[in-house]
Amino acid sequence: GTIADAVGRQIEGAARGVSGLLFEPVIRLGVTGLSRAGKTVFITSLVANLLDRGRMPGLEAAQSGRIEAAYLQPQPDDTVPRFDFETHLAALTGPAPHWPESTRSVSELRLSLKVRPKGMLGGLSGLRTVHLDIVDYPGEWLLDLGLLEQDFAGWSAEALARAEKRPEAEAFRARLATIDPDAPLSEPQAAALARDWTAYLKDAREAGYSDCTPGRFLLPGDLEGSPVLTFAPLPPSQAPRGSLARECARRFEAYKAQVVKPFFRAHFARIDRQVVLVDVLGAIHAGPAALEDLRQAMTGILGAFRPGRSAFLSTLLGTRRVDRILFAATKADHLHHEQHDRLAAIMAALVAEARRRADFAGARTQAMAIAALRATVEERRSVDGVDLGLVRGILLDTGRQAALHPGDLPEDPAALLHPARSGAAQWLGGDYGVMRFAPAPLTLRPGEGPPHIRLDRAAQFLLGDRLG
Ligand code: GDP
């Protein structure tokens, strides 16, 4: 309840004060994105590259040699699962490299850095310790923030309207047609509806749609099978006492109060710096509807970063603010670098609307195209007389090397985001569909660049000023 929360906040505040006195600043870095966006790979690579500082030229503190030591430490939150760095790193760098298991829930990792302040010559006594607490959480959970301002009827109307148009929802619609929302609650019926709704959300995600609430239905963790996850949107009805409709509405409220709010209070509200990872290339490849849906989902997700808009959210999220947000289009190693600027421009355009509405309450923002782990090298080739920039990597399916061209991104993002307005849109035709690369063994030769793309620049934007 509220008293425990208040006490918790006070203790936390005091602890922060103490670490402040000891000059051990803490940066809480939130890493989010929809599932498969690249969170796990990003964190694993960021931490590995900070531990081994030779490959981060764009991070000033690393480049100038001011990071004297970097090491993992026990994290501050004892009840949050630890980000399983060692297992993920072993997957990526073992003898048969493979992609690690993706984010399923919230997790945390503390990396501590011993930094020599700028302008200070040698000597260990002046070293400062900066703790980087990385908090990994599914972007699906951020989408739930929108639910807090909706009631069951409002959410149902929107969710059903979206589902109406999607073939993935066919089974759910068929079941809904056989059900009377005002009939007395039957648990098996509620469970079947929830199951069909969950299956629909999963298929819609697979098909490239982003706006899939309630987010916890997709990644339930230990809430699986509990009443807070056993409801589904229903058409308007009388909802008499004891009916399916009445109970679904009650569970929707319980979901908001007992699942959504605690996450925002315990994790989200304490973040200083945030990176939002987005599989822009995947959405472009999935086509116009998926890209438009991603744009809307981004607007929803970003609502969480401007709590100023509502007194209610300000109360929930407190007064601390995220002061830097990086929007990173991931997996840029699928493209020759000549197309990276275009990818970054599309990333920026995707969040432009949310940005215009409120500049994220004063937070600095930036859009970038990155690859946390480069699985390809570049080459040029003349194909049918056309000079093409290709990327070469090992295909997961066949284990063989291939040099591929994913297609061309348009110079103007509007061609993708407003295809109707600007005429013919270009989509990633090309080889993109077969581009499932295996992680490259870390054997990039000198001259082939670091084993990531702009991960160092991302780190500079997110942390650089705090390592001064
Ligand atoms: P999460 O669900 O956000 O944790 O996503 P993951 O980090 O597990 O990434 C999902 C998948 O995207 C991985 O299994 C890889 O196939 C792919 N991926 C992620 N990062 C990169 C990258 O930097 N380069 C390439 N080529 N693929 C990536």
Automatic annotation (TrEMBL):
Top-level taxon: Bacteria
PANTHER family on file: ATPASE, ATPASE-RELATED
Pfam families: DUF463 (PF04317)
Protein name: YcjX family protein
